[in-house]
Design a protein that fits this description.
It is a single chain. By secondary structure, the chain is α/β, with parallel strands linked by helices. A hairpin with a 2-residue loop joins β16 and β17. α3 packs across α4 and α5 packs across α6. It is globular, with a radius of gyration of 21 Å. Bound molecules: guanosine-5'-diphosphate, 6-O-phosphoryl inosine monophosphate and magnesium ion. Guanosine-5'-diphosphate (GDP) binds next to α1 and β3.
Length: 430
C-alpha cells in the first residue's frame, strides 16, 4: 500500500515543491493536507518555474489527480488566481479537487492576523500575514466557514451573520479598525463558490477509492516539523500540524495506511520569521549559505523576506525524525555546500554544564543552548551534474552518511539543483 507522506522536517522551505513535482510522476494521487497560502512551493520543470501556494505540486503530471484536503485553510481568491495562472500557462487543473470540508480564510482572518502581529510589537511571531492563525483558531472554536458553505446561500448567510457580529465588534472596539460588510462579503464569497464549483468535491471517496485500488498516493506537506503547533518552537510556530500526524488528519487517511514518511531537510538550515534558531550564522558564512543573486537565494517564496540561515542541526533533525516517524531522508540544496572548505554539523547542545540530546521545550531555555559543532571537510567540487550516489565526491558521501547516522533514518534522495532532473535517487520510496 504505497502511501508516502513527504513532510518538511525543519522550519519550512526545504524544497518540498521540487520533491513533490519529481515524485508525482510515480503517484496517481497527490494530496496537499495542511496549511494555507503561508506556503510557497517552487517547482522548476520543463514547463517553467512556478511558485504554488495552495495547488498541489503534482499538478504538472497530467495523469495525477490532485486534492486539496480537509486540513487545508483556503483563501479562495488566492486559489482562483493560482488556477487561472496555471491554466494561462497551459497547465490543466481539470483533475484538481478541493475538499468541501476545508476551511475558508475570510477577510477578517487576514485583518486579525496583521493586527495581532502589530499588537505583539517586539514579541511578534513574524507570521506571513495571510490569516492562517485566526482561520485555524475559528475552525477549532467551531465558528469557521467551510468550502461547502460557499455553495449553500442560506448556510453561508446565516453563518457569516453570526461570525461577523463578533468579528466586527473585535475589529472596531479592540483594534479601532473598520467593520466588514455582511452584504459585500456574502456576495463576494458566494461568487468565489460559483467560480470554484467545478473543483469542489467530497474528496473522501476519491482518496479511499485510490487506497482500495492500492494506487500510489503522495501526501504533500507544507511548512515544517519545527513549526508544528504541538512539537515546534512554540509560540514561534504556525497554527497547524505540518508533520506526519497532520498528513493523516488533514487528508483523511489513517496512520496504519502510511508506508513511508519522507522528511525533507536542507543540507543546512533556514528559517523565516522570528523564533529560536540555535545554529544560525551571520557574516560571510551566512552569505555563502544564502546564495544571493541566484534563483534559489534564501528569500521567502511567499513574503519575499530574507531567510535566516545556519548549519545543519542534527539535534533538531533527530527530534523531527522521532516525532514524525520519518524513515527516509530527502536532503535538498546539497549543491549549495559545493564551494565550502569546511562544513559544520550541530551534534548536541550545551546548556551550562549539561549536554542536551533533545531540544528543550521552551524558547527561553533553547535560547541559552549553545550548539556543539563537529566539522567535516567540504568537497569543493560542483555536484549539480551528479545523478548517482557513487559519483559524489567522497567527502560529500561522508557528510550525507554522517547526517543519516546522527538523525537515525536512511537516505532516500538528494537534490543538487532546483530543476526536476537534478536529483540523486538513493532508495526506492514508492
Ligand atoms: P518549499 O516551500 O519546501 O517547497 O521550498 P521553497 O520553494 O520555498 O524554497 C526552496 C528553494 O530552493 C526554491 O527556490 C527552489 O527552487 C530551490 N531548490 C529546491 N531544491 C534545490 C536544490 O537541490 N538546489 C538548489 N540550488 N535549489 C533548490
Ligand atoms: P512552506 O510550505 C517557511 C512561518 C512564518 C512564521 C510562522 C507563522 O513554503 O515551507 P503563519 O503565517 O503560518 O502564521 O506564520 O511560520 N511559516 C513558514 N516558513 N515556509 C513556510 O511554508 C511557512 N509557513 C509559515 O514565517 O515564522
Ligand atoms: Mg516555501
Amino acid at each position: 500500500m504505497p502511501v508516502v507522506a513527504l513532510i518538511g522536517a525543519q522550519w519550512g522551505d526545504e524544497g518540498k515543491g521540487h520533491l513533490i513535482d519529481l515524485l508525482a510522476s510515480k503517484a496517481r494521487l497527490v494530496i496537499r493536507y495542511g496549511g494555507g497560502n503561508n506556503a510557497g512551493h517552487t517547482v522548476v520543470n520543463e514547463r517553467g518555474t512556478f511558485k504554488l501556494h495552495l495547488v498541489p505540486c503534482g499538478i504538472f503530471d497530467p495523469a495525477t489527480v490532485n486534492v486539496i484536503g480537509p486540513g487545508v485553510v483556503i483563501d479562495p481568491e488566492v486559489l482562483l488566481s493560482e488556477i487561472e495562472e496555471l491554466e494561462r500557462q497551459g497547465v490543466s487543473t481539470a483533475k484538481l479537487f478541493v475538499s468541501e470540508r476545508a476551511h475558508v480564510i475570510m477577510p477578517y482572518h487576514v485583518m486579525l492576523d496583521q493586527l495581532q502581529e502589530q499588537e505583539r510589537g517586539e514579541g511578534k511571531i513574524g507570521t506571513t500575514g495571510r490569516g492562517i492563525g485566526p482561520a485555524y483558531a475559528d475552525k477549532m472554536s467551531r465558528t469557521g466557514i467551510r468550502i461547502a458553505d460557499l455553495l449553500h446561500e442560506e448556510t453561508l448567510l446565516t453563518r457569516l451573520r453570526i461570525v461577523l457580529e463578533e468579528k466586527n465588534r473585535l475589529l472596531t472596539k479592540l483594534y479601532g479598525a473598520k467593520p466588514i460588510s455582511l452584504h459585500d462579503t456574502y456576495l463576494q464569497f458566494l461568487e468565489f463558490g460559483h467560480k470554484l464549483a467545478n473543483h469542489i468535491a467530497d474528496t473522501h471517496p476519491i482518496v479511499h477509492r485510490a487506497l482500495e485500488k492500492d494506487l500510489p498516493v503522495l501526501l504533500e506537506g507544507a511548512q515544517g516539523a519545527l513549526l508544528d503547533i504541538d512539537h515546534g518552537t512554540y509560540p514561534y510556530v504556525t497554527s497547524s500540524p505540518p508533520g506526519a500526524a497532520g498528513a493523516c488528519q488533514g487528508s483523511g487517511i489513517g496512520p496504519t495506511q502510511l508506508s513511508t514518511v519522507i522528511g525533507a531537510f536542507k543540507a543546512y538550515t533556514t528559517r523565516v520569521g522570528e523564533g529560536p534558531f540555535p545554529t544560525e550564522v551571520d557574516g560571510p558564512e551566512a552569505d555563502a549559505l544564502r546564495q544571493m543573486g541566484t534563483p534559489w537565494a534564501e528569500v521567502g517564496t511567499t513574503t519575499g523576506r530574507m531567510r535566516r540561515v545556519g548549519w545543519f542541526d542534527a539535534v533538531m533533525a533527530r527530534y523531527a525524525v522521532q516525532v514524525n516517524g520519518i524513515d527516509t531522508l530527502a536532503i535538498t540544496k546539497f549543491d549549495v555546500l559545493d564551494s565550502l572548505p569546511t562544513i559544520k554539523i550541530c551534534v548536541g547542545y550545551q546548556l551550562n554544564d549539561t549536554q542536551l540530546e533533545y531540544p528543550p521545550a521552551t524558547v527561553a531555555v533553547l535560547e541559552q543552548a549553545e550548539p556543539i559543532y563537529e566539522e567535516m571537510p567540504g568537497w569543493m567540487t560542483p555536484t549539480t551534474g551528479v545523478r548517482r550516489f557513487q559519483d559524489l565526491p567522497e567527502a560529500a558521501q561522508a557528510y550525507l552518511a554522517r547526517i543519516c547516522q546522527l538523525v537515525g533514518a536512511r537516505l532516500g534522495l538528494v537534490t543538487v539543483g532546483p530543476h526536476r532532473d537534478q536529483v540523486i535517487p538513493v532508495a526506492d520510496v514508492f
